[in-house]
Amino acid sequence: MPDYDLVVLGGGPGGYAAALYAASAGLTVALVEKEKVGGTCLHRGCIPAKALLHAAEVFRTVSHAAEHGVRVSGPPEPDWPAANKRKAGIVNQLHKGLSGLLKRRKVTVVDGFGRLTADGAVSVDGQVLQGRAVILCTGSVPRSIPGMEVDGSSIVTSDHSTNSSDDRLPERVAVIGGGVIGAEFASVYTDLGVRTTLLEALPHGVLPIGPDRDCADVLARSLTKRGTSIHAEARVGSLEHTSNGIVVPYETPRGSDKLEVDQVLVSIGRRPVTEGIGAEEAGVRVDERGFVEVDTATMQTSRPGVYAIGDCVGTPGLAHVAYAEAVVAVEHVLGEDPPPVDYAKVPWVVYTHPEVAWSGMSEAEARSAGFEVEVHKHAMAGNGRAMILGETDGLVKVVAQRGGPVLGFHMVGPWASELLHEGYLAVNWEALPDDVGRLVHAHPSLSEAIGETMITFSGRSLHG
């Protein structure tokens, strides 16, 4: 008989979610983790990064306190060690809570590096764990650029930036990559007074892939207005270390240039961790990019009884997507017939200032898919609550099939991360804009902008 009903390899969001969900359903579970449960999201990614973004928000707010009728004695200064100490406290508290929850659910946590065996078990430092089913959730690590050696000090990845032990911020930073990670750190550094340059290889220097262009452009303008130097279609050359810092040469369609910085942040995405996990020996197929191949209807791999979820498969690399995939995999292990994750409609959030959030198709994607679309937008500039907050950069954009349901919801502005889910529900329930527009939105509130945008599909409007 197997030792466990389920063996989970990897303790990040997908792994611990699978373990907790399975245990709540009465399964016996072993969770294998070589570091700390919580994974990248808790210890090096989502949580610490957002804690630093909040520190930047507080600093930005205090810097403008006088505009709100609050006097402060002297200009505020960022306290980088204090921000990192608070961030570490939040991470430690969440780790303690997660560890306690796993213990209460009677999940057996096994410390060590696990790998699949030829017979489909999991070997951990000589100990073999037999499971009726196995879920792989081995996560991801930052991608690197050949010839640009990361040293954790002058050339860093997001892993280092969220766990900085420096006593002070660098004065000059070059962020290579304008995707989600690069945009978020550019926002942090810019707001804390660091001279920040963002270099992106693709057209459109900020969020070139993902959100509707109208929303991404609002963020780009805001970053530029606050001091970020953004260069699109930038090809970075070989770095040169000098006595004063690092010289970063780059080329754009406008010509060649270079800048000198104290630190280079490489943020060009993440790659799956699937080397050395015994996939080939166990008959689990891995594609040429390193992702475990799965049937996304069940999250099952090429070997029956072995599943894979999270960043090690080629689905959106989001913690909440890993949670959803964990539920699908566990329910399939239980013999149920779970609905698969609809990856085209999952919620996305970029926690910059202003925040960017979306679900479903952009206008360009909808038109490319052959839909006859109707599009309406509502600027946050006229929203009373946004004016009270002093945060009027932003808009709501809704893309709908003409005479049909909402295809995409896109928003940029204050607390877009929290306001997104009304639009997410509309997209996933294929709601008609008129139906959403008839729902009552509290006044004054930021969410009124959503209602105002939906109302305009009726051919009428209130304030817009």
Low-confidence stretches: none
What does the largest sheet look like? 5 strands, parallel
What is the overall silhouette? globular
Proportion of beta-strand residues: 15-25%
What is the strand tally? 24
Secondary structure: helix percent:
25-40%
CATH superfamily of the largest domain: FAD/NAD(P)-binding domain
**Strand order across the biggest sheet?**
3-2-1-7-19
* Count of discrete alpha- or pi-helical segments spanning 4 or more residues: 14
CATH architecture of the largest domain: 3-Layer(bba) Sandwich
Tell me the number of structural domains.
3
Give the integer mean of the pLDDT values: 96
What is the CATH topology assignment of the largest domain? FAD/NAD(P)-binding domain
Which CATH top level class of the largest domain fits?
A: Alpha Beta
Class from helix and strand fractions: alpha/beta
Radius of gyration: 24 Å
Cα end-to-end separation:
66 Å
Describe this structure in a few short sentences.
The protein is α/β, with parallel strands linked by helices and 464 residues long. It has three domains: 4-142 and 271-343, FAD/NAD(P)-binding domain (3-Layer(bba) Sandwich); 155-268, FAD/NAD(P)-binding domain, CATH 3.50.50; 354-458, FAD/NAD-linked reductase, C-terminal dimerisation domain (Enolase-like, domain 1, 2-Layer Sandwich), CATH 3.30.390.30.
